[in-house]
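Need tokens for this chain, all 459 residues.
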Amino acid sequence: MSSPVDELRSLLPDGAVLTEPADVEGYRRDRADDRSAPAPLAVVRAESTEHVQIALRWATRHRVPVVPRGAGTGLSGGASAVDGGIVVTTERMRGISIDAPTRMAVVQPGLLNAEVKAAVAELGLWYPPDPASFEICSIGGNVATNAGGLCCVKYGVTADYVLGLEVVLADGRAIRLGGPRLKDVAGLSLSKLFIGSEGTLGIITEVTLRLLPAPPPAKTVVGWFDSTAAAAAAIMQVVSAIRPSMLEYMDRTSINAVEDSLHLGLDRKAAALLVARSDSLDPSDDEIRTILEAFVDNGATSAFEAPEATGERYVHARRVVIPAMEEKGHLLLEDVGVGARQFADLIAGVERISAARGVPIAFIAHAGDGNTHPLIAFDPDDPEESARAYLAYGEIMDLALELGGTITGEHGVGRLKRPWLVKQIGEDALDLSWRIKQAIDPDNILNPGSIFAPIKETP
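Here are the structure tokens for all 459 residues:
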């Protein structure tokens, strides 16, 4: 007697459905590396919207959970497999069509962020959203989490560049939302509902992106500080005066992790490093001078405008902090965010939590918009150390909420942060969100356990 999985295999092309343990293992969890995640029942490697529709109709018919997956680089456990469920990956959906005169591109979700940037750059255009992982993360995943990046302080996040979507619902219907129009207010703004929904409402199969003209060359300012409080004060002075095209923060732990890995000549003794950029062409608006003055006014031990190659080296150092810290151990990665006035309090609070729990925490941030990334390193095979790491993880989110901030600025809630969501948005807003989810996915087959309900509570 054939099984439901045999039926699924018969509905799709040869090789589209994986079931062998060795084949599905790589799809068991995302970069959050939840080692408790089970192996999926099967993996569907979709190559078209039709393939996604077939998989979801089958899943609805058999009441099988579905976890949508892009490149698997998510950091909140939102793409971890669930018991008895399948994974639908869009990694093979890699088409792109660019309309240069209207500055738009239609992109399939499996294309990497870096690939989109490179393709449009050949036509003198630019796709601004730039997560630090832009070379390995997919457009579909970026949309699903409303990803940000280093230039968000001036240019905004993924949602600011999405004009339209094609989404497959749980029942297999493919709907088009928005499209190649800069102004369109017909009906409810449903595309915004799906952006950042983390695969809980539908699977994105096509994205219409707004592009910008290629940016002017950016100038880079570097500032070294002997205290984190001084760096935080400099950040506040910069953002109260201008909106730079980048303003990034690294603490001593992250500086040393990068230096251990790449030997770039960074100052290991510094308490903090700020890397700022300006791409302003207005001769009356000297942003570089404003940034330098802010750094010097707040006690920078060194502040200078870097030559182009040197500036790129510093930006690269900031981008590679996460992989450098991964060399130190298993990571719990956060993306709590606070307002500029609370930035110094968050830094100090994380330092206290690190000392109290006895776990190293590297602190990096898109400082210009208050989106921070405390990175907790620990040994997952040490139960006592793991417990302390997870306690620190929760305490950092509690701290962010106490400071009027958010538990996630760009990585999404996923499964790791779900227990804290109600503390931020409240029971009524969570209930409303769940009602919307039930209306669109009444059987709760799409990414169950992400955002709305726990797979496993945080220790």
